[in-house]
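Re: beginner question about structure tokens

> Can someone show what the tokenized structure looks like for a real chain? I only ever see the sequence side.

Sure, here's an example I had lying around. Input first:
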Amino acid sequence: MEHPAITKLEKEGLPEGEIFGTDACGDEVFEGDYILEHDGELILECNAMDYLVDILGAVRKTAGK
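And the corresponding structure tokens:
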């Protein structure tokens, strides 16, 4: 027997909120998403590392090496 919430998700998919905009990495931002703002750009929190490295040119290193 399956939980009713799982059955509903399989039938209807994940609920989507209203689109708020697009972040600096090109991903859609939905109302309620966690975002950062830098120089007028929106960045999804999950894209913060990509933004730092790919757009701002930060270099990822291992400490002590």
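Each token stands for a local structural state, so reading them left to right follows the chain. The CA atoms of residues 13 and 35 lie 24 Å apart.
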